Amino acid sequence: MERILITGASGFIGSFIVEEALRRGMEVWAGVRATSSRKYLQDSRIRFMELDFAHPDRLHSQLSAQKAETGTFDYIVHCAGVTKCAHPSGFDEVNFRQTARFADTLRELDMVPRQFIFVSTLSVFGALHEQDYSPICEQDTPSPNTAYGRSKLKAEQYLQSLSGFPYVFYRPTGVYGPRESDYFLMAKSIRNHVDVSVGFRRQDLTFVYVKDVVRAIFLGIEKGVSRRAYFLSDGQVYRSRTFSDLIRRELGNPWMVRITFPLFVLKAVSWLGGIYSRTTGKGFTLNPDKYNIMKQRNWRCDIAPTIDELGYQPEYDLDRGVCETIAWYKNEGWL
To answer: Of 77-91, 118-132, 196-210, where does the model show the most confidence?
Structure first.
């Protein structure tokens, strides 16, 4: 039985990876913090491992004890990370430094797996090809315009610098699906009869359903790829209102007021949100990072290598994915 460790297992993507690994008959270890919710980790076959990435000595002793008691892992999927921080430095600490610390400790303890799968993001490339709307591809030079994207890029570059380290990067575009909370806010707003968009210039959006992300990860495991990076989307390109229109349909077409804010309004609100976060230590939905994400006009990415090398074929377009997601929100009492 192959052994897999999934960090960030209690999170949105991580919990789905756990479920798929169990379905495949793997010995599944869920890497969690002591304070992590285990709501979506109820299967009795799951084994838990507390990992303290913030403290090197503690992490070293946790992994060392694990090796002594049960051995090493065949695969590690590193999902642990943050997408929101009260201060920009938090992204570097968690997404970059703690990832580097994890890799270093695995090397020190001779626990490097067959694959170290790092869930990254399309945002490592930033706003590219905004004039001709051509897809972002692996030959492009990354130029992240958010603290989040920069922290993920630093982590990628560090792992790439380790001689022979068997990394595999997945760079999904906007990931949505059951259990996800950010796109849920859009559904909640539409249920309350308001749809908000930003900017008047054309915006090409891409999405990927969480189960397709998981499918790609396990295709990479099956193929035994190493030291490669792959973009993930559903292969389609959507206009800015498509997502909200599909949500509205699944909610029974409630009457709705559409509001489009100019970018300068969003920038001002985001700037104030950043000040609020730094002052109070609490995250705010709109902040300078979020502004740069929302103003980006081109989210196309080239998934041809993912298709050619892994045999990846997305099973969910936005229509099917939104239908399943909204049904889950309803069934769980979120909507």
So the answer is: 118-132
Reported confidence tier of residue 287, pLDDT bands at 50, 70, 90: confident
Is 254 inside a domain boundary?
no
**Host domain of residue 140:** 3-180+207-235+300-316
Q: Is residue 284 part of a domain?
A: no
Residue 285 has pLDDT above 80, yes or no: no
The confidence band for 334, taking pLDDT boundaries of 50, 70 and 90, is: very high
CATH number at residue 91: 3.40.50.720
Structural domain contains residue 323: no
Interatomic CA distance for residues 193 and 225, integer angstroms: 47
> Is residue 15 a contact partner of residue 9, using CB atoms and an 8 Å limit?
yes
Residue 266 lies in a domain: no
Per-residue model confidence as pLDDT tens digits over 139-179: 999 999 999 999 999 999 999 999 999 999 999 999 999 99
Q: Which residues face 30 on adjacent strands?
A: 6, 48
Number of folded domains that form the chain: 1
Separation between Cα atoms, residue 286 and residue 263, nearest integer Å: 13
d(CA 241, CA 303): 23
Token pair 């989307």 in the structure block, residue? 233
The token duo for 220 is: 């990479």
pTM for the whole structure: 0.94
